[in-house]
Specification:
Layout (H helix, E strand, L loop, with lengths): L2 H44 L3 H27 L5 H11 L6 H10 L6 H16 L3 H7 L5
Length: 145
């Protein structure tokens, strides 16, 4: 496997783990919001106000829709690019510096470049990546959700 292939494989593994953590956070927020909505609806039922209950449930349904769209727009959509995952990896492993972001930039740029220099950068980045376990750091660290 080429050096760039190994970098892309590791970044794709981190992307899968990052999305898994994002989904867990999304589920926690959704369950907590549902519990809050039901608690207020039960409070309205206790007050014997049917109009309050139905208006509250309608407002909550619209709120959930807006929240889901916002979550997709803010967190799910940008994490599809390798550059975004490389930036996340820099937050997880500051000792890597900007090596991953540079590797992604080199792989996608259309500029003329020194292929020996780029391949050397790819190999050095792979060596640094072998010493770091990004997937376990994704679980342990606070990520910019």
């Amino acid at each position: 496997m080429s050096a760039w292939g190994e970098i892309a494989r590791r970044l794709n593994g981190l992307q899968r783990k990052y999305r898994q953590v994002q989904m867990e956070v999304f589920i926690y927020v959704l369950v907590g919001s549902a519990a809050l909505v039901l608690a207020v609806a039960f409070l309205g039922a206790h007050w014997q106000s049917a109009l309050f209950v139905w208006l509250w449930l309608l407002l909550a349904l619209v709120g959930v829709g807006v929240f889901m769209f916002w979550f997709w727009w803010r967190f799910w959509r940008p994490s599809g690019s390798l550059l975004h995952i490389a930036q996340t990896a820099e937050l997880l492993a500051p000792e890597l510096g900007t090596a991953l972001r540079s590797a992604v930039d080199f792989s996608t740029s259309q500029r003329e470049r020194e292929t020996n220099l780029v391949e050397h950068h790819f190999r050095r980045t792979v060596q640094e990546l072998e010493q770091t376990d990004l997937e376990s750091r994704c679980r342990q660290n606070n990520l910019p959700y």
